[in-house]
Q: What sequence folds into this?
């Protein structure tokens, strides 16, 4: 391939995906049909706990994040696993169609899962829009904007006296002298080359 980075020029946004039991931050979201109940596809990494939840649940929601979103939402949903914490404990949500949507957002889409397609690393979940609303008129955050400004959103704090490696994409922290040879970020899936040693 001459330059795979052209794929980064596909415009994507930043969304909080929520479902019963957890959720995560996603960028690969696309509307794939029109009509009263359009279909929307979202890709979720297989290693992500939210993927497991989506296999069991038949409904999920996408909250559209704006540039002024509270960074707490990004770090809670983007850099931690629902295996370890209750993501809804410190985030204000509203129950819509039995799904918790994020209040600090431009608005939400509640989707009924109708299909899913597995590939090696990700599952593409396809949902039918069943409820939606706009909370405020703001510019949605793009994935490009997030990447350029992520230091403002991800304020990573690491434990002192421990060697820490921080994922430069999502802020996940790994503790240990060296990253294992075949290490992949358990949250966003990137390989060890995108981790940086934290300086205290
Ligand atoms: Fe990561």
A:
């Amino acid at each position: 391939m001459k330059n795979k980075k052209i794929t980064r020029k596909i415009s994507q946004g930043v969304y909080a995906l929520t479902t019963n039991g957890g959720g995560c931050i996603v960028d690969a979201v696309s509307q794939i049909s029109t009509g009263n109940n359009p279909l929307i596809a979202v890709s979720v990494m297989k290693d992500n706990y939210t993927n497991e939840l989506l296999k069991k649940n038949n409904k999920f929601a996408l909250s559209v994040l704006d540039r002024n979103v509270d960074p707490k939402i990004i770090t809670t949903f983007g850099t931690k696993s629902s295996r370890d914490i209750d993501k809804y404990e410190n985030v204000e949500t509203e129950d819509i169609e039995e799904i918790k949507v994020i209040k600090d957002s431009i608005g939400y889409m509640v989707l009924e899962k109708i299909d899913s397609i597995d590939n090696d690393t990700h599952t593409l979940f396809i949902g039918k829009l069943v409820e939606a609303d706009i909370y405020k008129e703001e510019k949605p955050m793009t994935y490009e904007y997030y990447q350029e400004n992520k230091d403002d959103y991800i304020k990573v704090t690491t434990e002192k006296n421990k060697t820490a490696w921080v994922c430069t994409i999502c802020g996940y922290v790994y503790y240990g002298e060296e990253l294992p040879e075949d290490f992949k970020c358990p949250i966003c899936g990137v390989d060890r080359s995108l981790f940086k040693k934290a300086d205290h």
DSSP finds three helices and twelve strands in the chain. The mean pLDDT is 93. Residues 68 and 108 are 16 Å apart (CA to CA).
